[in-house]
Design goal:
disordered C terminus
């Protein structure tokens, strides 16, 4: 998108709220102060500038869709580089992912909350505390799109993904995509609805709570569980395992 400096500055001001919104959503669960969040917004602005420079108007895709990918990718890269999540939080996350992984392998289906708590030898109150402590990690996934994804993949690949509205197609590796799609389909209904409303409809946790008549904290729990289940499903790919099939939990 070739343009003069004045036009570029106008567009940066126009899309600055988009950058702030993306950063706010990505850091909502992270222990980040105001100054660090402002630094991430600046990183997002750099991603926006990159989008302005590289966007090709001949592609039948809205600029805002393209810009979101580049802004989010730039912020994710910065989060990974600085490793914002404390070791104690990662330990809790690893503990839960392993529990989901082991139980799904044993049961052949997604375990219930009660089954996960029993497997860990804790009561439900302790389970929810563990889930709350681990939720910060879920925002930074190695399966997220990298900043330069749109630069080294063909136009046909990413245009198809955008046109079909399926972000899973932006993950490299057919086996990974298929495994994730199946894992999402296998999520308990409420968790699947929360994921859809949050990532596709872009509702806030509070808005989702109002829609589903749940508390905001309960929506956060369901979101965290869903992401942890998906990450546990990906562990099968890394280890070459597959769970035996059985009836889903009622």
């Amino acid at each position: 998108m070739a343009m003069d400096k004045k036009k570029r500055d106008e567009l940066i001001l126009r899309y600055a709220p988009l950058v702030k919104n993306i950063v706010a959503r990505m850091t909502a669960k992270l222990p980040i102060d105001g100054a660090d969040k402002e630094a991430l917004i600046n990183v997002g602005i750099i991603g926006l500038m990159g989008a302005l420079e590289k966007f090709d108007e001949s592609r039948n895709v809205q600029f805002e869709t393209y810009a979101k990918f580049r802004i989010r990718g730039a912020v994710l890269d910065e989060l990974r580089i600085n490793d914002w999540v404390p070791r104690s939080v990662r330990d809790k996350d690893d503990k839960l992912v392993k529990a989901y992984h082991d139980l799904e392998k044993k049961l052949g289906r997604a375990p219930t909350e009660e089954e996960a708590a029993a497997h860990l030898g804790i009561d439900m109150d302790e389970y929810y505390k563990l889930l709350t402590g681990a939720k910060a990690v879920t925002v930074i996934s190695t399966e997220d799109i990298t900043t330069d994804y749109l630069d080294y993949h063909t136009d046909e690949e990413w245009l198809r993904s955008v046109d079909q509205g399926n972000p899973l197609d932006l993950l490299t590796g057919e086996e990974t995509r298929e495994r994730l799609k199946k894992a999402i389909d296998a999520l308990p209904e409420k968790e699947r609805v929360v994921m859809s409303l949050y990532y596709y409809e872009e509702l806030t946790m509070k808005e989702i709570g109002c829609t589903l008549r749940l508390t905001e904290s309960r929506v956060c729990q369901l979101h965290s569980q869903a992401v942890l289940r998906l990450r546990a499903a990906l562990r099968y790919l890394r280890e070459g395992e597959r769970p035996e099939k059985s009836d889903p939990p009622r």
